[in-house]
Amino acid sequence: KFQNIGYLPRWIIFAIDLTLVAIAVAMTYFIIGNLSRNAFFEKPISALVILFVHALFFVFLRTYAGIIRHSTFIDGVKLLVATTCSYATLFLVNYFLAFVFETKLLFLSTGLFINYIISFVLLFLFRILVKNVFEIYIQTGDNSKLIKAVIYGADANAISVANALKTEKPSRFKLVAFLDKFN
Predict the structure, then answer these.
(1) pLDDT per position as a tens digit, 9-30
(2) How far is CA 103 from the centre of its chain?
(3) Which stretches of 8-155 are DSSP H helices?
(4) Are 79 and 63 in contact (CB under 8 A)?
(5) How many Å apart are CA 21 and CA 54, to the nearest integer?
(6) Do 115 and 50 contact (CB within 8 A), yes or no?
(7) How far from chain centre, in Å, is Cα 151?
(8) Distance of CA 153 to CAs 45, 157, 159, Å?
(9) Between these two residues, 84 and 174, which has the higher pLDDT value?
């Protein structure tokens, strides 16, 4: 059953994160290529540098260590910090190499920024998507095991109780009806 799925190994989450960063690099390359005559990077090794720097910060901040279907605000902050640190490192390395070796930049600065935004959005949305899919599936899972409940009253207190029952995780009750005295 879908509900009995175990947890994915951390290396798979790490690989998915790196794949999403690679997709962000490809998207950035095509965006920059279509907007200007300049390429986001000149050599394919540059894309590997971006992946390597992201991988370092993913390992350092352990962004892959959480359980994806139980992602929290803290996981989003970790992703933001990891992608921000990656962007800052790549930006500094870019200008350091250009200054020391007096060559042109390894990456376009605007391309790095676009890649930073796309990477964070893809990583964050992936976690949100997985979490929502699991929540929706679990909510619509076994309605037959829920206890049927009837709430007496139709005032604000009764509605508050109904809202509390609907938002309870995991659900124990299925709200069937409201009863109120008829005058």
Answers:
(1) 788 889 999 999 999 999 988 8
(2) 37
(3) 10-35, 44-61, 73-101, 109-139
(4) yes
(5) 8
(6) yes
(7) 38
(8) 68, 8, 9
(9) 84
Confidence of residue 55 (pLDDT cuts 50, 70, 90): very high
State the virtual CA torsion across 134, 138, 141, 144 in degrees, nearest 10. 180
3-state class (DSSP) for residue 36: coil
Residues 6+ apart with CB under 8 A from 3: 137, 138, 141
Tokens of 175: 């709200």
Render the burial of 40-73: b for 16+ CB within 10 Å, e for the rest: bbeeeebbebbbebbbebbeebebbebebbebee
Backbone angles phi, psi at 151, to 5 degrees: -105, 130
Helix (H, G, I), strand (E, B) or coil at 1: coil
